[in-house]
Automatic annotation (TrEMBL):
It comes from the Eukaryota. This is Pregnancy zone protein. InterPro entries: A2M/Complement_sys, Alpha-macroglobulin_TED, Terpenoid_cyclase/PrenylTrfase. Residues 8-174 form the Alpha-macroglobulin-like TED domain. GO terms for cellular component: extracellular space. It holds the Pfam family TED_complement. The lineage of its organism: Eukaryota, Metazoa, Chordata, Craniata, Vertebrata.
Amino acid sequence: RKEDKKLGEVSIYLCVSLQGGVDNEVSLTAYITIALLEIPLPVTHSVVRNGLFCLETAADEKENHVYTKALMAYAFALAGKEEKRKALLGSLEKEAVKKDGSVHWQRPGKEPEVDLPYYRYRAPSAEVEMTAYVLLAHLTTQPAPSQEELSFASLIAKWISGQQNPNGGFSSTQ
């Protein structure tokens, strides 16, 4: 389904097969919907509504990539769609890597590097990014996150902070 709506001077395409450094059209739709909700445009705006409709349809698919689920969870959190947010976070928790008192997500089929003496492995930027989206999804909820969610979020934040380089940045600006 292709929707072309004017938003100021910007033309937005939702639910199209475009590639822009993301895995698929669902990821692109989630990115755009997140950006519009962060402006903030209301959930009732036609472009946002169309994006959320596409994401709701895609959320029911079983084959979603962990990165796409993370983006959708945050989009639903921003939109106040608690049931969808919680369902995706539940699915994501089953795929989480829980290690050394922290939690993170990695791309399927990507084996983590082994820590060597005097060398600390840092995860690829895509894994830091998707883990950060899961953290945002946990913390962006109304009413405020529960104590249980905050405890889980702190384990995610611990892993993310461990990915910082000596200058306080990360492996990329992504």
